[in-house]
Amino acid sequence: MYVDIEAAKVPSARATAGTRRRRIRLIMLGYILVAPAVIWRLAVAIYPFLNTIWQSFTNNSPLAGTQRFIGLANFTRMFQDPVILQSLSFTFIFTAVSTAVQLVYAMGIALLLNKAFRGRGIVRAVNLLPWAMPAIVVATASQWMFNSQFGMIDDLIARVLPFRPIWLANPDLARIVVIILDVWKNSPWAALIILAGLQNIPRELYEAARVDGASAWRTFYSVVLPMLAPLIFTLLIFVSTYRVLTFDLVYGLTQGGPGHSTSLLSYQVYQLAFTGLYYGYGSAVAVFAFVIVLFLCVVFFLFMRRSEQAL
Description:
The protein has helices at about 5-55, 75-80, 80-115, 120-125, 130, 135-145, 150-160, 170-200, 205-210, 215-245, 250-255, 265-275, 280-310. The chain contains 13 helices and no strands. By secondary structure, it is mainly α.
């Protein structure tokens, strides 16, 4: 029987072309559906970011009524400004100390919550309450708690010691209070992430360590930490960058005082751009803060990749 091969190919070619057109329509429909979200994201994120970079090279200020390109003058001025330098110093101290204490504290909380005990679900939920509270509420309430005359903290200290620390009027004590509150409020979130990592460690590794006679500390050092290393470096990225960009806690608790001892770079951006209306100078400080965040992200990301490869 004779079969026309060329005629048989025509329906097949038509079917392939129809399938291709349907795929193109589906792809175009996907782009159309996603376009509003992408456009909105560009409008509220990308454009302000690029505009901030441009503003950092100008002397834009409604007070002066001018906007002129001045190159790196804002950045040069920034490194000669004692207020910015003091804010930069405390930003590094705050980021380093708060990040380190948070991770150690969160690790302890996670290890406790990973144990089997009655009411564990309720305790895990209560653990998240500080993190769920708005930072401005925590800061405002803490102003009363650390008040030298009426505060609960000073009242408890006065019952034991013959003095009342003036927490928020002493630069060193005010810095300690800011760090303590930041650790107390944000550690539960880090503890929850570490707890999830602990639950993903195979039980066989614990049993193998127990068979080898490893102590609890040795098991933690040789089994738990290596398995959690990628997660810990990921947490370092988020926790450290959030510390650099912290604003609401300082704004609600100390307003950068006493003096400028607790002022962070993010608070200085607010002071310069929205209180002093120095848009160009404030944008330069914001760009410098972004560079710090980018540097931290790159460094910890490289460590995270190395720890993943080690596993």
